[in-house]
Amino acid sequence: MKTLKFKTNINCSGCIRSVSPHLDGEKEIAHWEVDTSNPEKILTVSTSTLSAEEVENTVKKAGFKAEAL
Fold it and tell me: Is 41 left (phi over 0), alpha (psi -120 to 50) or beta?
């Protein structure tokens, strides 16, 4: 299992609700969370197989930006 971190524009509980179906629907994501108290709104994803680019694309489909750290 690897942990990937991303700077995002997911900045409130409404944003988290919007992105949840996309991240929850990705079977290869074991766990994810967004630290909205961090100024860079850090998304942390635990996955065995997904690349950073694949996670970024999933977030983009939800209408948000993600940049691997």
Answer: left
Q: Is 26 exposed, middle or buried (0-12, 13-18, 19+ CB in 10 A)?
A: middle
Do residues 2 and 46 make contact, with C-beta atoms less than 8 angstroms apart? yes
Structure tokens at 22: 């996309």
From first to last of its 69 residues, the chain has per-residue pLDDT tens of: 999 999 999 999 999 999 999 999 999 999 999 999 999 999 999 999 999 999 999 999 999 999 999
- Residue 15: what residue type? C
Backbone phi and psi for residue 48, each to the nearest 5 degrees, phi listed first: -95, -30
